[in-house]
């Protein structure tokens, strides 16, 4: 099957900008970083969040997308600001930007990390947690499907999605220059709007 999505289109645009021929390999998310480390791929693009831990072993391009984080909550129990999170049980998906943000920015919050956001929303509906932190696009989707829930923008993520490279990769400068050209021309924004809606 043909690989589609924001990451694939962006990779194809960078390939064109660099004037290089790329071979795309479809891998499970968990395999990408291992493949970079063993040298079987040159770059990884798959909504990879830049973290301090990952920076120890990999180089990253400039971020091509920064997430807006929104809190989903029951209409009768609003959680509309960071200040209200202390002492609350907040669910998020394990290993995501949201989990990192909560650990760094919400002291006193009981963080409940779950395998996926659907589980987290079910926990909220059952009253086991008081809020679920997701990206703003997912927040809209969940509240559309569940009229008893609503959401509020909480913060812009501290980190973004970037292209992962092997440590010391010579491609970093070239990829950053290509991203800059795509940003300046407005192409990157159009791509984000196409795949993610109009909010950035």
If you had to describe this structure to a student in words, what would you say it looks like?
Residues 2-198 form the Ionotropic glutamate receptor C-terminal domain. GO terms for molecular function: ligand-gated monoatomic ion channel activity. It comes from Stylophora pistillata. This protein has 2 domains: 6-64 and 162-196, Periplasmic binding protein-like II (D-Maltodextrin-Binding Protein, domain 2), CATH 3.40.190; 68-157, D-Maltodextrin-Binding Protein, domain 2 (3-Layer(aba) Sandwich). 40% of the residues lie in helices and 23% in strands. It has 8 helices and 8 strands, in the order ααβαβββαβαβαββαα. It has helices at 6-18, 29-37, 52-57, 97-105, 117-125, 136-145, 171-184, 187-196; strands spanning 43-44, 58-60, 65-74, 89-93, 110-114, 131-135, 149-161, 164-166. Strands 5-4-6-3-7 form a 5-stranded mixed β-sheet, with helices on both faces. Strands 1-8-2 form a 3-stranded antiparallel β-sheet. α1 (6-18) crosses α7 (171-184).
């Amino acid at each position: 099957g043909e690989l589609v999505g924001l990451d694939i289109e962006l990779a194809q645009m960078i390939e064109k900008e660099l004037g290089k021929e790329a071979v795309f390999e479809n891998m499970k998310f968990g395999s990408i970083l291992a493949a970079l480390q063993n040298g079987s791929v040159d770059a990884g693009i798959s909504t990879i969040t830049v973290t301090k831990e990952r920076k120890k072993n990999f180089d990253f391009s400039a971020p091509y997308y920064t997430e807006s984080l929104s809190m989903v909550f029951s209409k009768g129990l609003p959680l509309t600001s960071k200040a209200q999170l202390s002492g609350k049980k907040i669910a998020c998906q394990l290993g995501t930007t949201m989990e990192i943000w909560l650990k760094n920015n919400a002291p006193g919050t009981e963080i409940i990390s779950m395998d996926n956001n659907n589980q987290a929303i079910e926990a909220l509906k059952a009253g086991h947690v008081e809020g679920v932190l997701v990206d703003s696009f997912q927040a809209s989707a969940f509240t559309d499907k569940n009229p008893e829930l609503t959401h509020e923008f909480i913060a812009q993520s501290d980190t973004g999605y970037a292209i992962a490279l092997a440590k010391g990769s010579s491609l970093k400068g070239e990829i950053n220059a290509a991203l800059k050209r795509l940003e300046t021309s407005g192409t990157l924004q159009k791509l984000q709007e196409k795949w993610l809606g109009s909010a950035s």
